[in-house]
Design goal:
Layout lengths: L8 E6 L3 E11 L3 E7 L3 E9 L4 E10 L2 E3 L2 E3 L3 E8 L3 E9 L4 E6 L34 E4 L7 H15 L5 E5 L12 H18 L3 E5 L18 H14 L3 E2 L1 H9 L4 H4 L3 E3 L4 E6 L1 H17 L30 H10 L17
Parallel strand pairs: 10-11, 10-12, 12-13, 13-14
Antiparallel strand pairs: 1-8, 2-5, 2-9, 3-4, 3-8, 6-7, 15-16
Helix pairs in contact: 2-3
């Protein structure tokens, strides 16, 4: 993903809640590269090249849906398209309503839609992996992301889930990923409150002929001094697997997938895929580079899982996990020295201390 200096060029279309197929005719005045987002920065196309005078057609599916956050209920009254490009582009939009299943997501900051700052740098931007999923699904599935920073299984049950109670329809999907905030609350221990709320969501969806997909939480990218990632959420991974077996619903093991992917890279290389700048380093929240990697890991596993109505709509030819250009660490200072540096800027190795507060974003 490349850097961009300009703010996005916005296009808004007033429509009621629902799913829409959007058609864009994009014309360049000079040779250019552009990226397209929809709604709350859900990825549609990244770093596409276009020649001077060329017109490209881009078609994708958008879900328009009201949502609830802990501070308020929000009404969404249309389609929003953001095109990021450092050159001028002409954009002609069109749309039609479509009847396709919706993949609704509930979860925490690691999967939610995160905004970006401009000038844009993909390494300095928070990114929940759920906002990248539209890039790896065809136009037969719409994505509606209701995850929120700081959320737990209990909070969503008491608040955020209210919107989805009215929206879920037979044939839709309810995808769930929690754990990072649950582990900070005693009543939401892995096989106690956490598992109990997961079972509620599974039961709720079954009554409405909605298919649940349970994801283990992504692991925190914290290495010990021997170069191994600490097991900070393993119990929550096991609890999710247990609930999936109890409810006979698909289980996507993101905890193992993220551990297996980032651990061989080593601490210093793996850090590149989590939000960082000159003054701080995050070890829980991915940046745009890392969010895209986890979305691809999820898509690869979901395609193999044989989830009827979903797996066949995953664009497996665009995932390319083995093609991600990463190299393991060269010899560096010890991880113990890195831990000392983390503590000097206010980070530690206790899970509750590792999350940067991004609830205001």
């Amino acid at each position: 993903m490349m850097q961009y200096d300009r703010k996005p060029q916005e296009t808004k279309i007033a429509v009621p809640n629902g799913n829409y197929e959007v058609m864009l005719d994009i014309t360049a005045h000079t040779d250019a590269i552009y990226t397209v987002y929809c709604q709350n920065r859900r990825f549609v196309a990244v770093d596409r090249e276009i020649g001077a005078g060329e017109t490209q057609k881009l078609t994708f599916v958008v879900n328009v849906c009201d949502y609830i956050r802990r501070d308020a209920a929000y009404t969404v009254d249309g389609i929003q398209i953001d095109i990021v490009c450092d050159s001028d582009l002409s954009v002609v939009p069109g749309y039609i309503p479509v009847q396709v299943p919706t993949l609704y997501i509930i979860g925490d900051s690691t999967v939610t839609d995160q905004p970006a700052e401009y000038p844009y740098d993909p390494e300095k931007t928070y990114c929940g992996w759920g906002q990248v999923l539209p890039m790896y699904l065809d136009n037969s599935i719409a994505v509606s992301n209701h995850a929120e920073s700081g959320a737990t299984t209990k909070e969503v049950f008491n608040l955020h889930f209210e919107t989805l109670r009215r929206k879920l329809r037979p044939g839709d999907f309810l995808m769930i990923e929690f754990g990072h905030n649950d582990q900070k609350e005693a009543e939401l221990d892995a096989f106690g409150g956490y598992a109990r709320y997961l079972r509620y969501y599974v039961d709720f969806a079954k009554v409405r002929a909605v298919k649940t997909i349970l994801n283990a939480p992504i692991n925190r990218m914290i290495f010990d001094d021997n170069g191994k990632i600490l097991n900070l959420l393993g119990d929550y991974r096991d609890a999710v697997k247990s609930v999936s077996e109890w409810g006979h619903v698909p289980f996507i093991d993101l905890w193992t997938a993220t551990t297996d992917f980032f651990e061989p890279l080593g601490l210093y290389t793996a850090k590149k895929y989590f939000r960082h700048d000159e003054e701080s380093q995050d070890y829980t929240h991915t940046n745009d580079l890392g969010g895209a990697i986890i979305a691809r890991l999820w898509a690869a596993m979901a395609a193999k899982a044989g989830i009827k109505g979903l797996s066949e709509h995953i664009l497996t030819d665009q995932i390319g996990i083995a093609e991600i250009p990463v190299e393991p660490d060269a010899p560096r200072e010890s991880n113990a020295q890195e831990f000392a540096r983390l503590k000097s800027i206010g980070l530690g190795t206790v899970p509750a201390d590792l999350d940067v507060d991004i609830s205001h974003l």
